[in-house]
């Protein structure tokens, strides 16, 4: 039996540690999951004293404030010592990190702080090592490329048997100055993956001068689960498009059996006292045959409200009624842009905006709360695209008032980012000014208000608001920032 310490930097959603821990336990190994430090999201003007991830997120909320997300305080000596003590008490044979693209630098710092204290192999897995292995291999002894369940079990088995681990499929291995790049491992059948480990005694959370044991760093009243891996679409700003390049589009999309999902949810319902289920599939509303089998069983055997993702072309009114009947009370849909040119040419989402509006109206008609996101400050956007998006939002059902408006984040290796770099090198980018963006962002938020359309158009035409967009804030509805578990209030646009 090998002992494996899994470190997840920063609290928040991440199924990977629980999934890896479940697989290791099923194979007879011992696991400790350590969440280290917390992130915050603050109004940008209040973010002083915090650091940002390599690729920080910025968004706008309904009251007009710009929020900075992915913020954290620098690692302090007390945190470092608490982490060392926690790991030393466990005595691991292997230390693993789950690493996102924006966390490579921070995870590298933590790895280097631990090295003098623990002479055991370090393995990194997650999107960061998968997409940018060259940047990561200097911090770890091994990198897991893509899925990690089989990799980490094989590595633990070999460590337990004192065998060589340099040739494990799906890994890069560093031996001195040599880097061994092994072949990709075939993708798993999802039903072969063990249930995730949610045993409280395996969890520790460390932040500043506090250690919380038997503590989940997220709301465990809501149970997070994925019924599938992969996506049928290839959006140029999404990691799934890169996975498709690596493993093939057909092979990358897989779904668990209905039996295995029901079994996991029944366990969670009976043992964790959950009140809501969060389906984090990239697009839950694919595979109609699977849903036809799953939804009646979910209603009969689980019977809890749930949230999921959809895509404008993957649902119709009948399916939405079935989702609602089974317990779906909230659904998220990516809008991304009101410009069909941007959707088609820059995002690889060749969806007509009329279909997006119809999809939103169908969600309204089904009586399901909606959350929507719109990507702003797109590198290839023109004033005409901003105008089209404004007109699009005015047509969008007012009942669907909950929007996230994040700035586009150019993650490395994504096709969108590669296109930006190529265009910049040729001097082909001609972005609107910051003042233009600020003006339209305020208009976007205003378009989701209860003001009459005629009044919104008057504000848009008034030169004083273009000169000082923040003046529009006086018209915003001040309301709490909602999350997926909150009901979306119904709002009716005022008559002219």
CATH architecture of the largest domain: Alpha-Beta Barrel
Largest sheet: 9 strands, mixed
DSSP helical segment count: 18
CATH topology of the largest domain: TIM Barrel
* Uncertain regions spanning at least 5 consecutive residues: none
Strand order of the largest sheet: 10-9-8-7-6-1-2-11-12
Number of individual domains: 2
What's the Cα radius of gyration?
A: 24 Å
Strand content: 15-25%
Helix/strand/pairing class, anyone? alpha/beta
Textual characterization of the structure:
- The protein folds into two domains: about 170 residues, Rossmann fold (3-Layer(aba) Sandwich), CATH 3.40.50; about 260 residues, Alpha-Beta Barrel (TIM Barrel), CATH 3.20.20.
- The chain is globular, with a radius of gyration of 24 Å.
- The chain is built from 18 helices and 20 strands.
- The longest helix is centred in the middle third of the chain and has 15 residues.
- Strand 17, helix 11 and strand 18 form a beta-alpha-beta unit.
- The chain has about 500 residues and is an alpha/beta fold.
- A nine-stranded mixed sheet has the order 10-9-8-7-6-1-2-11-12, sandwiched between helices. Strands 3-5-4-20-19-18-17-16-13 form a nine-stranded mixed sheet. Strands 14-15 form a two-stranded antiparallel ribbon.
- The model has no long low-confidence stretch (mean pLDDT about 90).
